[in-house]
Amino acid sequence: MSGSPLLEFIQQTINGLTLGSIYALIAIGYTMVYGIIGMINFAHGEIYMIGAYVGLLVITVLSLFGVDSISLILLATLAVSILVTGSYGWAVERLAYRPLRGSPRLVPLISAIGVSIFLQNYVQLGQGARDVSMQPVLVGGWRFGPEDGFQVYLSYMQVLIALITVVSMTVLTLFISRSRMGRACRACSQDRAMANLLGIDTDRVIALTFVLGAALAAVAGVLVSMYYGLVNPFIGFIAGLKAFTAAVLGGIGSIPGAMLGGVVLGLAESFASAYLRTEYKDVVAFALLIGVLLVRPSGLLGRPDVEKV
């Protein structure tokens, strides 16, 4: 039918924005840590994976106790997951990264990879390597289009993902721009040594950055467990790699860049899966990254590094 290509385009745009929202939430954790201490936290994907497991566990427990209120389930799951993953984020920074601060960059990088492998195997030993599934919490949605042709489907869960992503990013933006600790974070990203000389507790700021990144990863993990209803110990590696790609695409160290990079990457994968083949979605995503970096080496919204003298 004549309207089918347009409706298919709208459907893939919805799917891409949903996937991009998840990537953006995870990517912010990468870009915040890099913006302050100049290090890539490769264990961040595993923090997201732990958040997904915690979300699934809390939802299962609440279901066993007969709780059927969607709002109560969502709030309780987000609160517990943020608390647990925030603790993991703080512990990772305190035990694996802080003792290595001031070392050559390769040393904390190796430590980050080691923590990633440790967390993945830790969850695998505790939960097994198999997929763990659960019943969907929020079902249903809206359909648009002709009765006898292709219809655009917008699920309630996709709307929820979009709303929670917008709220999370708005709260983070207000915190960074208007709170005292937010200003301290910006000062550390500008010049950590000078911020320390001016009396800012940079260790506390860095720890807060890891906790905030872990909290956003927890939100993404909960949304993924509710959306797909399936988790395993290996989802953190793939999602972490894609989110890191999104952060670099948007401009590593830029929070708006991480948001934009996540959305662009999600749309690219969705359109590639629909109009080419599913196997080509990663090819298109990384080809897009290479193309953008060739034109803008600092990313879409990144700023070139200025050498301080």
TrEMBL record:
<comment type="similarity">
    <text>Belongs to the binding-protein-dependent transport system permease family. LivHM subfamily.</text>
</comment>
<keyword id="KW-0472">Membrane</keyword>
<dbReference type="Pfam" id="PF02653">
    <property type="entry name" value="BPD_transp_2"/>
</dbReference>
<feature type="transmembrane region" description="Helical">
    <location>
        <begin position="72"/>
        <end position="92"/>
    </location>
</feature>
<keyword id="KW-1003">Cell membrane</keyword>
<keyword id="KW-1133">Transmembrane helix</keyword>
<feature type="transmembrane region" description="Helical">
    <location>
        <begin position="47"/>
        <end position="66"/>
    </location>
</feature>
<keyword id="KW-0812">Transmembrane</keyword>
<protein>
    <submittedName>
        <fullName>High-affinity branched-chain amino acid ABC transporter permease LivH</fullName>
    </submittedName>
</protein>
<feature type="transmembrane region" description="Helical">
    <location>
        <begin position="104"/>
        <end position="123"/>
    </location>
</feature>
<feature type="transmembrane region" description="Helical">
    <location>
        <begin position="205"/>
        <end position="228"/>
    </location>
</feature>
<dbReference type="InterPro" id="IPR001851">
    <property type="entry name" value="ABC_transp_permease"/>
</dbReference>
<keyword id="KW-0029">Amino-acid transport</keyword>
<keyword id="KW-0997">Cell inner membrane</keyword>
<keyword id="KW-0813">Transport</keyword>
<feature type="transmembrane region" description="Helical">
    <location>
        <begin position="283"/>
        <end position="302"/>
    </location>
</feature>
<dbReference type="InterPro" id="IPR052157">
    <property type="entry name" value="BCAA_transport_permease"/>
</dbReference>
<feature type="transmembrane region" description="Helical">
    <location>
        <begin position="153"/>
        <end position="176"/>
    </location>
</feature>
<feature type="transmembrane region" description="Helical">
    <location>
        <begin position="20"/>
        <end position="40"/>
    </location>
</feature>
